[in-house]
Amino acid sequence: MNGHTVDNNLQFSSDFDGGTWSQWIEKAEATLKGGAFEDKLVRLSEDGIAQGPLFSGHTKTQATAISRPFVAHLNDRPWHVDMMVNHPQIKTANQDILGGLNGGASALTLHIDPTGNTGIALRTKNDIARLLDGVYTEFVPISLFPGANNHEYAALLGAHFAQKGQMDDTYIELNFAPCDQGRTDILPLTHWVKTHAPHWKTLSVNASALHETGATQAQELAGLAAMLVAYVRELSADMDLETIRSQMSVSLASDQNGHGNIIKFRAARALIARIFESFDAPPEQRTLPIHAISSARMLSKMDPWSNMLRNAASVFGAICGSADFILCRPFTEPLGLATPFAQRMSRGLQLMFMDESHLAQVQDPAAGSYTHEHLTNALAHKAWSLFQTLEQKGGWFAKDAQQFIKNQISLAHQTRKKAIKDGTTVRVGVNQYTKPDIRPADIRPQPLIKTRNGQIIDAKNIEGRLVQAKDGYLLAAKPPEICMPCVRDYEDIETAMGEQNGHA
């Protein structure tokens, strides 16, 4: 080495002056030619949280400790690659399931609609057997898409797995997410699951539904907190806290804001831990499994190919935000039923990030980042403030609280739509870089579902519905109940574009 001594203890920081935050602000403003730092360089989120341009140790933000729960059948995977199953025809849905599991999926989400308009036309326990034919259900976690009718669909699953003698070795999440009038079904359904299905879960803290109605991040998280507390209160008179915790999971939306998703998922973990702490849960019992579901609201109908980019950012944020299950919607979802190609793209994104990009080699990779820690803390505090307002108005199921959150979400949605329409908020393929001659994306045709006759499951409790399901009764051919209507961020502008280009 030419006689030179090599110093293996390099101290680069000693070559730079320390400086202060105020000095940095002064130099930054000098480049703005008279503009104020806050006006030129600081952006506000939809929740009014200051974002950037730089965060440093001067903020003295407390680090957010992230812990994750036990999740069955991960088999050394960092998360479950979930897949949506929603083709109305049972035979085709079964083919989708087998193709997905052979193609890298490790968990299933069943979207049931007895009418067949928006999901699988399941109506009897034999339909469940046909749907899951060839699936090793003891190794594949199965979830129902969160909904207000899942306490009814539970009868079909219970009848099927009881007949097969598999109630003890299947992992099913019923994801019952009741509207106000369905809250009386929470306790009896949870009691039945606790007694007969040791690895099943009953309830979904379905915050993703708020996102799909137009909620901001803080509104979605406030709803999460309010729902979680409401469920605990509903069950606490008859069950201990650990049993209650074992009966729930969380559903959060993941949109095109990759780093925003990281912040939101970390803030969600912090809120969940804080709530369980307030109920005196020990530290190891302050977590819940989190299902990340890519946003339907963010998807473009006019330019579906741009949705591949949105899905990539969505999945990236969910992974780095430490989601336990990730469900990526097909990029063609706004158009109709997904083809096997579109389904493969949804799985492939996750598998590439897992096996090629190795994104999950470090748990909570944002830990210690000034930006992510500061914004996680700010978002959690904003959501907590909204949650406290909901509590003051009677809690999640109270009419005043429901009206308050609906009004807040509606205002946020209208503000967002205006920003997209006037170009303040950029959306590729929607209000920027648009094309009138976009190559069509293939979808599968919506099939006609035959009418079926038979005795209808109409018992008022889970035990009665199970007896009827075992006897071959049918679910009523009615669509799933919607607690809050879903919206699309680009509906107005894409409708206008479609009329202009002759696509209406």
UniProtKB/TrEMBL annotation:
Residues spanning the membrane: none
Matches recorded under InterPro entries: Cbl-dep_enz_cat, MeMalonylCoA_mutase_a/b_cat
One Pfam family of this chain: MM_CoA_mutase
GO molecular function: cobalamin binding; methylmalonyl-CoA mutase activity
GO BP terms, alphabetized: propionate metabolic process, methylmalonyl pathway
Occurrences of domain Methylmalonyl-CoA mutase alpha/beta chain catalytic (ranges): 115-448
GO CC terms of this entry: cytoplasm
Full protein name: Methylmalonyl-CoA mutase alpha/beta chain catalytic domain-containing protein
Species classification: Bacteria, Pseudomonadati, Pseudomonadota, Alphaproteobacteria, Maricaulales
